[in-house]
Design goal:
Structural class: alpha+beta
Radius of gyration: 17 Å
Helix content: 25-40%
Strand content: 15-25%
Number of helices: 6
Largest sheet: 7 strands, mixed
Shape: globular
Distance between the termini: 18 Å
Number of strands: 10
Length: 242
């Protein structure tokens, strides 16, 4: 199905403003039932979940990390702390709620990304990657390493709407993913949490295809291709789960 492509914010815009805008689009989708897609990048930072805010030294961790150039922002979807930055392309699908099957929305989210990976000669699949940040059944994995993390947030049906789903993916295109992994672990260490993540559990598209050009060039190529896949209905049909 084709998606309405939403405007991308400047890469310098703080992620909390971007995430708040997505929540507004989620509410609009619940009322009009129109699927939307949002591709965006953010500055270097960590984005954590609401439950992470309850860690005993959360505020102190945020102050430490901001001083190190890794400010912390909070999202409404699940998972764990994740790194963001110039080499990471974020895809959000904003979808009408048509089933209670979580996997259905993850497969819709994964469809354009798997198509993209296939066009680069990469056999992507869904799988857990123990030791990776934000690990889950619907990671996209190439060569045993995570290249995409995923999460969801549901807006339950109300008196005047049927509900909607925000499905989010972060595609690791270029950059030092081990440094991002280390900083996600550092957040939990500083905040008093138990989670720790392992280097070598994630990879980038650039590394997987031995990319020799600039990182910006590859990000732009990937963004342009995803825009086409999302807006021109080039994706294979997905059967709705019961």
């Amino acid at each position: 199905m084709p998606y309405t492509l939403l405007p991308s914010p400047p890469a310098s815009q703080p992620p909390d403003q971007i995430l708040a805008r997505e929540q507004q689009w989620l509410r609009e989708c619940a009322h009009d039932g129109q699927p939307r897609a949002h591709l965006w990048q953010g500055p270097q930072c960590l984005i954590v979940t609401r439950k992470d805010v309850r860690l005993p030294r959360y505020q102190a961790a945020c102050a430490h990390l901001a001083a190190e150039g890794w400010p912390v922002y909070v999202r409404d979807s699940g998972g764990t702390a994740v790194p963001h930055g110039a080499g990471i392309l974020n895809l959000s699908l904003i979808l009408p709620r048509t089933t209670t099957d979580l996997a259905h929305y993850y497969r819709l989210l994964g469809a354009p990304l798997l198509t993209l990976l296939g066009e680069y000669g990469l056999a992507g699949s869904y799988d857990f990657v123990p030791g990776s940040f934000c690990d889950g059944q619907f990671n996209l994995v190439i060569g045993g390493r995570k290249v995409t993390g995923t999460a969801q947030r549901w807006l339950a049906p109300g008196q005047d709407h049927q509900g909607a789903v925000l499905a989010q993916a972060m595609l690791l295109v270029v950059g030092d993913v081990d440094e991002g992994t280390r900083m996600a672990s550092r957040f939990y260490e500083l905040a008093g949490g138990e989670l720790r993540f392992l280097p070598g559990t994630s990879t980038t598209l650039a590394h997987a295809i031995c990319w020799q050009g600039s990182g910006t060039e590859l990000v732009n190529k990937v963004r342009a291709r995803l825009e086409n896949l999302l807006t021109e209905g080039q994706l294979p049909p997905l059967t709705l789960s019961a």
